[in-house]
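Lab notebook, bench 4. Still working through the backlog of constructs that have no structural model yet. Next entry is a single chain of 196 residues. Request: give me the C-alpha cells for it.
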Amino acid sequence: MKSATPPNGHMPQHPALEHEFTMRFTSTPRGARLARRLVSHRLDEWGHPYASPVNETLTLITAELTANAVRHGHVPGRDFHVQLALADGTFRIEVTDTRTEEQPPAGPPATDSLSESGRGLLLVATLADGWGVSPRPAAPGKTVWAELHMQAEGHPLTHRVVPEPTDVDLLLTTASLLRDDLGSRPEEASHGDRRR
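Model written out:
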C-alpha cells in the first residue's frame, strides 16, 4: 500500500484558522450595506475596533466587493455569500455570487477623474495585499476575494505602495459615501433554506 505522504516527506500544511464569519445576504443594496456592517462588527468582536486601520480597510474592501456582487453578479432570486477568515496573520474576505458570465477584469480598469464607475477594483487593489477571482466550486458563479496581511500588533503591513493624491481623494470620498444610513435593517440577511 502506498503512503499518502508527499515525496518530500512533509504533509501539506494548511493555515490555522483563528476566526471565521460566514453569512448569506439578499442581493440588494441593503444586503450589501448589512454585509459591510456585520463584517465591521465581527472585526470589532475579534479585537480590531471600528476605528482601527484593519477594521476600516476590510470594511471598505467588503463594501466594494459586495456592491459589485449586487451590481454585476445579481441573479434574480439568488443571494450572495460573504466569508471573512483570519488565519496565520492574514485576513481573507470572499464574496461569492451566482453569475458566471460577469467576470471582473484581471486588473483594475483605468478610469479618469470624471468616471462614475470602475473605481471599486482600483480601491480594492490599492487597499489589499492581494485579490483575485475564483470559480465557484460545484455550482455556477464566482468568488472575488481579497487578502490583508497583519503585523504582530494587529496593524496592516506597511509595504503597500502609497496611493497617489488622486487615490487618497478617492478613498476619502468612498469612505464618506459608506457612512451608515438609517434605512438598513437586519432582515436583509437571509435566513432559512433560500436556494442560491
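Notes after review: The helical segments are 29-45, 53-72, 120-127, 165-177. Confidence is low (pLDDT under 50) at residues 1-12, 112-117, 158-165, 179-196. Flag for follow-up if needed.
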